[in-house]
Amino acid sequence: MHNATTAIRKLSLPEKLYKIQGLRKLFILLILAAVWQLYARNLNNALMFPTLSSVLTGFFKVARSGELWERSAVSLRVIAIAYCMGVTAAGVLTVFAITTRLGTDFLELLTAMFNPLPAIALLPLALLWFGLGYPSIIFVIVHAVTWPVALNVHSGFLGVSDTLRMVGKNYGLRGLRFVFKILIPAAFPQILTGLKVGWAFSWRTLIAAELVFGVSSGKGGLGWFIYEKKNQLDIDLVFAGLLTVIIIGVLVEGLVFKYIEERTVVKWGMKF
């Protein structure tokens, strides 16, 4: 007869470390860095593919000079303005759609027309309408943000259960009060997904747009930094610029949106 209580085996140190997600990701990152360094050294062509060590050297060089932070600040300021405008436009369209039948038809028609249209395809028109500079970039970023956010928010609203809707109506909630008290909290996981998708689209669009005409009065953002360094054949700095784009994207995703998720959907028990 076996003992009813089975001794719990203590995990070894490697097993404990393996359970830490951050360490697993760090291990993968170190492997990728080693592969990059070995491949670049074997290729031995700095104009084609510089080594990771030379990229990091260039990165810290432009970081110490302040140029990289100035360019990053320009890009972040532009995307903050455009992202907020796009989210606001998506919110207005979605509230209009969820409260009126005409609004639903209007949103469905606009998303069917404009969501498949790449934001970069609007650059020539933006240049004609707003001129060379950041108003044009803001226009294309707003386009990139509005439709995926609106689609996710509207989908989240439609997915709210009839029970919750009836509870809200029984409490006399109508119009915007119904949207903010019932629909938004219930659909927030889907809304947050839309905000993440909108951020990713906006960040990619910004960098691509700056690569084309992102300079204004001699000052451009990260995309223009990458373009300038490519023309100067400073390929290690081109990679340093790309590395900065990745780092900012990871930080926003891993810190800002993670914090919002922890304070909302996880705290409310919508995600485990």
Percent helix: over 70%
Q: How do the helices and strands follow one another from N- to C-terminus?
A: HHHHHHHHHHEEHH
The count of DSSP E runs of length 2 or more, i.e. the number of strands, is 2
CATH-level-2 architecture of the largest domain: Orthogonal Bundle
What is the averaged pLDDT score? 84
- What is the rounded Rg? 24 Å
How many structural domains are formed by the residues?
A: 2
Strand order of the largest sheet: 1-2
CATH class of the largest domain: Mainly Alpha
Distance between the termini: 38 Å
Structure keywords:
flat; mainly alpha; 272 residues; 2 domains; single chain; MetI-like fold; 12 helices; two-stranded antiparallel ribbon
